[in-house]
Amino acid sequence: MRTIKVHLKDRSYDILIGRGLLKKSGAIIKRLDVGNYAVCITNASLLKLYGNVLRKTLEKSGIPVRFEMVPDSEKAKSEGVATSLIRRISSYDKRKNIFIINFGGGVVGDVGGFVASVYKRGIPYVQIPTTLLAQVDSAIGGKVAIDLPIAKNLVGSFYQPRLVISDTGLISSLPHRQISSGLAEIIKYGVIKDRTLFAFLERNHKKILRCDNASLEYIVSASARIKAKVVEQDEFDRTGKRAILNFGHTIGHAIEAAAKYSNRYNHGEAVAIGMSGSCGIARRLGLISQKDAGRIISLIAALGLPTKAKGVRLQAVYNAHLHDKKFIHGKNRFVLPVRVEKVKIVEGVPDAVIRAVLKEEIL
Question: Is the whole model's pTM more than 0.85, yes or no?
Fold first, then answer.
């Protein structure tokens, strides 16, 4: 088991990474002393696969658990689902010291973390991410949110978990599409901070897609370590240092919104397209060479991810990007690659450049 510490003073917590941790999670959580009754937010598929394992390990450690189901899609991150969860939890929260366990991917982590942040002005929660994407990105850092129809993550807060338990053994049971989706965020980490990680992905992409456990533990740990360091430097996204984590996300979120959060593109696929688009913008602005941009786009494709979007309208994507949270003083703000391991935050990218990339390279 590997342990990575997120140092945030009294909000510090550990990220535990290793195979087989789910069976040990009851004893691990018991040591936290976060409550005496667990509400596990998950979806029906995960409950069927792992519900008994999680229940047994918790109850063995003296922690009763109640499972609350949410849809297995981005639609779970809605006002209606969040409100329903809060009402259901409050109906049986009598003489209990409740805490939340988010057992699922990024959607479960986001909506469950949001509920934890607002119920009773904040109760403890633990992340047990079950997807590669959640293990390397969304379960770490305390950004919790729900979506509005017009754009993603418009209602949310910063609220740190008490612990993240990443069982890499869960990844091997994922569909190929879910594994590729998580790899998009790992490519992001290589581009923004770690040329060694990027090169490892280039050399070992076939082993990774076969779910080689040693490779998975390495890329999950490397990514989690980068995310932890960035969060430590800019927990509340105020200094601009955390903004680099949004590489690929401005266009990616716009594609998700334009596709109405359907199954056409999951988050990782949309981010992959967004990274390709960011390479196109950077080339047009003279920030990156054709060779370096090609290297990034080639790795995206090698890991089974899309570089272009189909079935969404240009104007819908453009309109959605106008609602991006990274706009400052009316100006857009993109994280653009300069080379592998270096990105630049650029404000006020001309509309003509954005439209040209969307039209000629993305859509």
Answer: yes
**Claim to verify: residue 211 and residue 319 sit in the same structural domain:** yes
CA distance 222 to 91: 41
**Residue ranges in the chain whose pLDDT is less than 50:** none
273-282 residue pLDDT tens:
999 999 999 9
Burial of 7 (0-12, 13-18, 19+ CB in 10 A): exposed
16 with 79, same domain: the answer is yes
Q: How far apart are CA 234 and CA 7, in angstroms?
A: 11
Same domain, 202 and 80: no
DSSP designation for 243: G
CA 21 to the chain's CA centroid:
20
Residues 161 and 192 in one domain: no
Half-sphere exposure of 115 toward its Cβ, with a 13 Å CA cutoff?
32
Based on the fold, state whether residues 203 and 144 are members of the same structural domain. no
Mean pLDDT of the chain: 95
User: Are residues 239 and 131 both part of a single domain?
Assistant: no
Same domain, 54 and 163: yes
User: Which residue do the tokens 């390990």 mark?
Assistant: 57
Q: Up-side HSE of residue 121: CA atoms within 13 Å toward CB? A: 0
43: Cα within 13 Å, side-chain hemisphere: 19
